[in-house]
Design a protein that fits this description.
Two copies of one chain form a homodimer. By secondary structure, the first copy, chain A, is an alpha+beta fold. Chain A contains 19 helices and 18 strands. In chain A, strands 1-5-6-13-12-11-7-10 form an eight-stranded mixed β-sheet. In chain A, strand 11 and strand 12 form a beta hairpin. In chain A, helix 1 runs antiparallel to helix 4 and helix 6 packs antiparallel against helix 7. At the A-B interface, helix 1, strand 1, strand 2, helix 3 and strand 5 of A face helix 1, strand 1, strand 2, helix 3 and strand 5 of B.
Chain lengths: 507, 507
């Protein structure tokens, strides 16, 4: 009954696969890798100086161990990539480096020194809608102190954040570490009648509305605190449904910043009037401010700013954010602040999920690719001098002599010179093009004539390119210039000659 | 009708979460991280010297882009961790670094220099049954040349593998890079009548049987080539069902190694007699052997060994394996060879899956944690000298003086000395214990007396521990010894005094 006769089986033509990456994932080339590696090494140096030790946790954790603390869980999978193990248990790719740290501490509690100071650099994954500059795999570099109840641990991390930014090349005055306290926000919420357990979900909506202050301004946040907000694309985000006087109080909180820490703290005290928890938060901020002042970081490096709340649900006390204050061209061309490159806070409840008892902890996290982007903008030497030189390429003109060409390459490498033999199947012209593409400083050429004479030709590609430019205007000197960029030496002197070309290039 | 009355809602008691890692995943501490990082830097140096450039691909790829090339696909999920994207497409965690490279090359083909030489270090994931030393997340360090049709590319990688092992501390004579060629095996299979397409599955069984030669010996492999084999646990593995004379021919192939490359090649020529493809494979091996000999690597560093086939299906030509030849104690205490730490081969068909045309490629992959384990056994300086010193700890005896203690720490850090203030909530004794646990060289102590006198006490923990040992025998000198390990200096001289303790420790 089928139309295709059995005698002529449809041989499955294997269709050509499309070579593509999943959205939100990206490859990285040598310059980016080298710059990142150098930036991480600088950060590591500061963290080590502060007494933090390296730690790594795996990419995969039990889903329940990670918990659900992500903001904007508007996707079916709630922001994480998850899959089932063969014993039916759910596993997830880590979405940050804090939840796995809590698991690590709880699992090894008795064996760890307390306080436990660790730093961790690594990739994390978010199952979110990717966009420009918004990836589903990105790197964070965290430092955390677990087991330190006093807010001097928070103050220390904020000052370390400042030192770290300066170490990687962000000049003083072009950044600020802002500190706030969730307890103060709790006090405000208490004061407007949202303190009870039953309002937990609404409190979260308020929290995330405030977290968008930077992006949406006070009017936008007021809409998200009240009836809701429609964005440019027409998407509507439901609001917290607060009354105007409630909204006013929340905005008074975010706007409480004064000219100095003393004024800010006095303003905050007024906003949380009547809330014990709010006052506790203000007292903690006062303690932090005193430490920051004593250490001299109150010169604009570290500052109290009630507009900072951080979107993650697990914070329980001080929260902080590293903001770069210089402007860049925004999407519409108008200048905008570069903004946040790192943030963190105190999360006394995360380890408690495993241990039953509260374990005080505080830490912060650098967005690695965001900070790297900033370093490119300010022209930090970390990213501008990549130090990547191409290899010297030994051309292959006579395939029967491969072993000899290889011996030439081996001699260069033995002298510590980055070098390779051309391994493709193409002719001289393509080989020269290849060397150009590899950014080679020079090529080594040996045809049958040179071989018979026991010599090699060395062609300086940098000098050659410069001279080609010159001879465009000065045609009668062309031949001579070409001779300068390419010269012959006895084979035994090849290494010295190549060294000379490399040295000329560096000077 | 329900037994639970509505007036008494069962308040959900949140059960304490178990802090645990999924099987086959592991955390890593500072010593392991530092040793790995140092080993990777050494490998990178050799790869760069050979003209390879860094490349990184993401952890997640489309499942179809990765293909199914894993051996031992005895798990429901066929060896990979997979999950569906919100557009229903299947994504997988990469199981090696070769399949993603093929995708990268196909996707960027026109923009890349050809040959394209890249190295990539990164974590890969296998959804397999974990066991001792067998992890589901592990690191590989690969180098590949794509677009090089000649086997001189394979020869180069084998010699680079030798240089790499020596660079990280494996002495010459304690390793061998073994080379074989899949085409020779194809010739053998042709010769025993398994050449046709319909025998593809059986050929794979033969391939994987040979790959177990190291572990099972010739008798075990003969069973896997024939009727099948029951292992110690009683599990039965089905065999390829070959007849005795077919098995004999396959084993003659794996046993074809002679005293030198010439003898081995002659033996192989006999085994593949009558197969054009087999002879092509022997000719390629002959070419590689000539290059290896010309470069002087035939001194035992690189050698042809027909027993090497590699388990992965995608290899199409030369295959190679780096084996460490020294012995360690096996599970039963008897000495066994350390064995393979790296391997690879030519995979001319992997990029073709995307491009339709064959793109010649060859590369190899180091098992990072296996090589690191080997370095520990041979006592390579890379892993023995971790260079990790603990921080100087400033004790906190008077909480009202936190700002001043912090200033002391800041002064040490400003002098480049790794230091921290004790941030926990415990007393003096616990703080000393903490410093011991952190491997601190010394602690700085300032109580109210010292503060009034403008001094600090410095307690040298290393000298202290040594003297405590001495005074166990020499009780009457105990007091004096303690005084030596702990001394008082003016606060202004603290940095110099700590430097003195650190210098004494290093000498």
């Amino acid at each position: 009954m089928s139309g295709s006769p059995k005698s002529q089986p449809q041989k499955p033509q294997s269709p050509k696969l499309l070579a593509r990456q999943p959205r939100g994932f990206a490859d990285r080339g040598p310059a980016d890798i080298a710059a990142t590696e150098r930036m991480l090494a600088h950060i590591r140096e500061i963290y080590a100086l502060y007494g933090f030790d390296a730690l790594e946790t795996p990419f995969v954790e039990y889903t329940d161990a990670l918990g659900k603390f992500l903001p904007d869980q508007d996707r079916p999978n709630e922001g994480v990539f998850s899959f089932q193990d063969d014993d039916e248990q759910w596993l997830s790719l880590r979405y940050d480096l804090t939840a796995p740290l809590a698991r690590h501490v709880a699992e090894n509690y008795d064996a760890l020194p307390k306080p436990f100071r660790s730093y961790r650099a690594g990739w994390v994954f978010r199952n979110e809608k990717p966009g420009p500059g918004r990836f589903r795999q990105f790197m964070q570099f965290d430092a955390d102190t677990v087991g330190a109840p006093s807010v001097s641990a928070d103050a220390e991390i904020c000052m370390m954040a400042a030192d770290t930014l300066e170490k990687v090349g962000i000049a003083r005055g072009r950044y600020v570490i802002k500190i706030n306290n969730r307890k103060v926000l709790d006090g405000v919420l208490e004061a407007i009648g949202l303190g009870a357990d039953e309002h937990a979900a609404r409190r979260l909506v308020v929290l995330r509305a405030i977290d968008k202050l930077d992006r949406l301004g006070a009017e936008g946040v007021a809409l998200l605190l009240g009836p809701g907000r429609k964005d440019e694309s027409g998407d509507f985000t439901r609001g917290a449904g607060l009354a105007p006087e409630q909204i006013a109080r929340v905005l008074a909180f975010t706007d409480a910043r004064g000219d100095n820490a003393g004024t800010t703290l006095a303003n905050l005290e007024k906003v949380v009037e009547g809330s014990a928890r709010g006052l506790e938060g203000v007292a903690e901020l006062r303690e932090i401010a005193a430490l920051v002042e004593a250490a001299g970081y109150d010169d604009g490096r570290v500052s109290i700013d009630p507009a900072v709340v951080r979107g993650l649900e697990y914070y329980t006390g001080p929260v902080y954010e590293a903001e770069l204050t210089f402007t860049i061209a925004g999407e519409d061309g108008a200048p905008v602040r570069f903004g946040s490159v790192a943030g963190g806070g105190r999360y006394d409840g995360l380890v408690a999920r495993f241990r039953g008892e509260a374990v005080p902890a505080t830490g912060f996290s650098i967005g690695v690719s965001r900070l790297l982007a900033a370093l490119k903008i300010v022209g930090s030497p970390i990213v501008s001098d990549t130090g990547l030189a191409g290899p010297v390429v030994v051309l292959v003109l006579d395939r029967a002599e491969i072993a000899h060409y290889h011996a030439l390459v081996a001699r260069l490498r033995a002298a510590g010179i980055r070098a390779e033999m051309y391994l493709g199947g193409s002719g001289m012209k393509a080989q020269m093009k290849y060397a150009d593409r590899r950014n080679s400083p020079c090529v080594v050429i040996q045809g049958s004539d040179e071989r018979a004479a026991g010599t090699v030709q060395i062609k300086d590609l940098v000098a050659g390119a410069e001279q080609a430019e010159t001879t465009r205007q000065l045609d009668n000197a062309a031949y001579k210039a070409q001779r300068l960029a390419q010269f012959s030496v006895p084979e035994a002197e090849m290494v010295e000659a190549v060294r000379g070309v490399l040295a000329a290039r560096q000077s």
